[in-house]
Amino acid sequence: MKSKIRKSRSIHLPQLAWYGNGELEIHFPPSWEVDVCNMKGYRKRALSRQGFRKAFSDPIGTKPIRELARGKKEVAILFDDMTRPTRVAGIVPYLLEELRAAGVADEGIRFIAAVGAHGALNRLDFVKKLGEDVICRFPVFNHNPYENCAFLGNTSRGTPIYVNSEVMSCDFKIGIGGILPHPLTGFSGGCKIILPGIAGIDTMEANHRTLIMNALMKGEDPGIGLGMYENNIIRLDMAEAAQMAGLDIKIDAVFNLHGETVGLFVGEPVAAHAEGVKLAREVYATKPSPGHDIVVLNAYAKANEAVLALPIVPQVLGESGELVLIANAPEGQVTHYLVRSFGNRFGGRLWTPPTSLPSNINRLIVLTPYIDLAGTDWLGCRESVIWAKKWDEVLQKLIETHGDKAKVAVIPDATMQYFV
Question: What global pTM score does this model have?
Fold first, then answer.
């Protein structure tokens, strides 16, 4: 017979970024010690219309788009995919105003989903990202990393650069994305819109694996990790690729806990990204809180790429403990042609067969009503994951192990936060 759960104060966590933006209420026994590890800027106010306009009228490191695009005939607008919370539809109207002021005709504009090695988007996704008006006015394409990529040469680090041929046929190139902590590049956004965004699969493999291996073989520090930006060789390689591809303008957003844009950075791709990262460091920074028995990782911004919640675990878990990963993604975990499985024994170029959980993780519980068995290839072997559809199921399992005492850390969005 299940024991009765006594509720303590409620904690509300953001959910379903692309499905109306809701909240999940969770609770714990009142005798448990619960630490909600909020990021510094979780309540930061959304940017006003005046803020959006200022970002476009006063770009970073370059002239306004309405001046740069004057005389251009073919414009490619790249945008990030559903694994990022960027509300591109709220940014595009200001961009189109700039292009219209430059005299660019609608017929010369196309949008391209910079999906990298992720699966293609469909019309429903395009509407969520861009809005119905945009997809009725302009053609919107997916990037295909396996076909129609033009070779531009090698970077100084030896990465062969293949880039979407449609983009390369255009004489003005703009990228729209968002800045979030990232376990490889330190922070996402910036020149990732080119590599991996619209790069060929060989380029992605070289940048994501060969570059790191070569550095380690030489005894060099690749400079990768959450929040590691300045000397990150992967990011620097991406910046060089963007320069080779001729990316003219990058637009990057920074978000609060509910996915609202709190900062917008428009301008020369490297310079604008560097300014955006300054704000991102402040907004997403989270105070360290080590030594917990249970860590609850909510995935909101990247619920369909929930594996990106895991890198912060060492800074909150004790010598051993349990993880609860909340990954409410109705579409399941995103297809990733480089690192995910495509069968019980087959996977992408960088896929490795899943193994058991690390020795300090006693149990991994994944909370979602949208169970995705194949999605465990992000997390460990299938047998390592315990599924739950409701919070009370999770709490019952935890109480059975910990009784009346437990030290818990709740991370409101482990795909957006990093500890400093």
Answer: 0.95
